[in-house]
Automatic annotation (TrEMBL):
Name of the molecule in the record: IPT/TIG domain-containing protein
Superkingdom, natural source: Bacteria
PANTHER family to which the protein is assigned, alphabetical: DIHYDRO-HEME D1 DEHYDROGENASE, PROTEIN NIRF
One Pfam family matching this protein: TIG
Boundaries of every IPT/TIG domain copy: 284-361, 363-445, 447-529
SUPFAM superfamilies: C-terminal (heme d1) domain of cytochrome cd1-nitrite reductase, E set domains
InterPro entries linked: Haem_d1_sf, Host-pathogen_enzymatic-act, Ig-like_fold, Ig_E-set, IPT_dom, WD40/YVTN_repeat-like_dom_sf, YVTN_b-propeller_repeat
Length: 529
């Protein structure tokens, strides 16, 4: 690591972890598979917190002394964009679709809402004093901000970008995490050595859990069963049972732990130790992941525990599973074919373990995608309807991966990944039961370029028909003259006809076309006389 690591973020695909080294101005990239550190991202001034795009291609970092958010492309290992925000940005959250970034500005008492597609600040929301931790729920509808100086939690609606509730009763709150099911928010109280559990429906504190000294970061597991807390003052991590709201284990880590993240499968926990310039990797014990797989078998399943060395067999009910790797506290096996629920047990020379349930899921069906056309730059959100989609774990646009967001068993959404060029690609949905059975197609289109008008002047009363020329106009959805929508018809990919709308003013106005690929404006392109 670099010096004084603070924030840590996990890529949604579970392949890499990213660590913000605030003292050395770098972001370390950790390979989850072999626990190696690759070339660091940079340059930064003082990186403090991180977020990762849903397709894992972009890493967003708050740079606190630069009052900015910096965007880095993971594949080129370099900062490619800088977005000015408020004073001393402290934390960042990425919306489920990757379209919005939410950044707390500690010394401005604000939350910056950023359009990730355009790298611009959409709005700035006033919150409480000295905001720090921030989290957005899995539905993308609410954002939660911990206000350290006034002991409150702000609840922000992402529809209106306004504070809709302020919850008191905290004590110098720092970290915030939302359960995957969106039902509970966990807030670390750094001055009280506790964690507050908040019911998101009633917006009230339902439990206060004693943890270690000066708790900072907090994270929840994807199965909603656990919360993990980094205790900065006692060099420990508290493991909270979310069902009982009690600490079940306290784990020693490095000096001054700050940030904390968990892998998507819930097997490993990553903790930054700011006082020793290290990252602790904690393996959860007596766990199995994934717990779902197709009836055809072939799922790689990780089993953790103690006394697992020299395993002689692993059975899914009565069916034997091939063992790929075996260590004292971890086994990797491949699930055999099956149906229903199988009890998984490990046999070693010391005996047979307690069983863990593994469910064989039937395949799902993806019947439609909307919209089916979009920009080559991606980042827009699509909706996929079908059946048995509640266990969807990936969506492929051609060969490009997009993590899905589960809406219901009949619907998922996904943020479209960027494409190298225009054209149709197959869309493949994978669930716990395997590939969905329907074939879907999504078409990437290049952004439009409006280059000219056949007539550039006309009466204020409008009504004239003119031709608009340019590139990539075939999917046009609107033509606007200074905010006034015009009737139009598409002639070809490089031309369309529009009826000039009446105007309340005279003089030059902008003409804008919008297509599935984006927008293009001809400034002052038409003059009303």
């Amino acid at each position: 690591m670099g010096t004084k690591p603070l924030g840590v973020a996990m890529g949604p695909l579970g392949l890499h972890a990213y660590v913000a080294n605030s003292g050395s101005g770098t972001v370390s990239v950790l390979d989850i598979g072999d626990l190696t550190v690759s070339t660091a991202l940079g340059p930064y001034n003082t990186p403090t917190a991180l977020g990762v795009s849903p397709d894992s291609s972009l890493v967003y970092t708050t740079d606190s002394t630069a009052n900015a958010v910096r965007t880095a492309q993971k594949d080129v290992l370099a900062v490619t964009d800088t977005i000015a925000v408020g004073n001393t940005p402290a934390a960042i959250a990425v919306s489920p679709g990757g379209i919005r970034l939410y950044v707390t500005n500690e010394n401005s008492a604000t939350l910056s809402v950023i359009n990730a597609l355009t790298s611009t600040v959409l709005t700035t929301v006033p919150v409480g004093a000295q905001p720090n931790g921030v989290a957005v729920n899995a539905g993308g509808l609410e954002v939660y901000v911990a206000n350290t100086a006034d002991n409150t939690l702000s609840v922000i609606s992402t529809v209106t970008n306004t504070v809709v509730a302020t919850i008191g009763g905290m004590s110098a709150p720092l970290g915030v995490a939302v359960s995957r099911d969106t039902l509970h928010v966990y807030v670390t109280n750094s001055a009280a050595n506790t964690v507050s559990v908040i019911d998101t429906g009633t917006r009230t504190i339902t439990a206060t859990i004693p943890v270690g000294t000066t708790p900072w970061g907090v994270v929840t597991s994807s199965d909603n069963l656990w919360a993990y807390v980094a205790n900065h003052g006692s060099d420990t991590v508290s493991v909270i049972d979310a069902t009982t709201s009690t600490v079940t284990e306290t784990i020693a880590v490095g000096h001054q732990p700050a940030g904390i993240a968990v892998t998507p499968d819930g097997v490993d926990i990553y903790v930054t130790n700011s006082g020793t310039n290290t990252v602790s990797v904690i393996q959860t014990l007596n766990q199995m992941a994934p717990t779902l797989g197709p009836q055809s078998g072939g799922t790689k399943v990780t089993i953790t525990g103690t006394g697992l060395a020299n395993a002689t067999s692993v059975h899914f009910n009565n069916a034997s599973a091939p063992i790929i790797a075996n260590a004292a506290n971890r086994i990797l096996v491949v699930s055999p074919p099956g149906v229903g629920v199988a009890q998984v047990a490990v046999t070693t020379p010391g005996g047979t373990s307690n069983p863990k349930p593994f469910t064989y899921a039937p395949s799902g069906s993806a019947s439609s995608i909307s919209p089916a056309v979009g920009p080559t730059g991606g980042r827009n959100t699509v909706t996929i309807d079908g059946s048995r989609l509640a266990t969807a774990n990936s969506v492929l646009f051609g060969t490009l991966l997009a993590p899905p967001l589960i809406v219901s068993d009949q619907q998922i959404t996904a943020a479209v990944p960027p494409a190298a060029g225009p054209g149709p690609v197959p869309v493949t949905v994978t669930t716990a039961g395997g590939l969905a059975t329907e074939a879907l197609t999504y078409t990437y289109v290049d952004p439009p370029a409006l280059t000219g008008l056949s007539t550039s002047t006309g009466s204020q009363t409008g009504g004239g028909v003119i031709d608009l020329t340019g590139l990539n106009l075939g999917t046009v959805t609107s033509v606007v003259f200074n905010g006034l929508h015009a009737l139009f018809s598409v002639g070809a990919d490089n031309t369309l006809a529009a009826v000039v709308p009446p105007s309340p003013i005279t003089g030059p106005v902008d003409v804008t076309v919008t297509t599935a690929g984006g927008t293009s404006t001809l400034p002052g392109g038409y003059t009303y006389t």
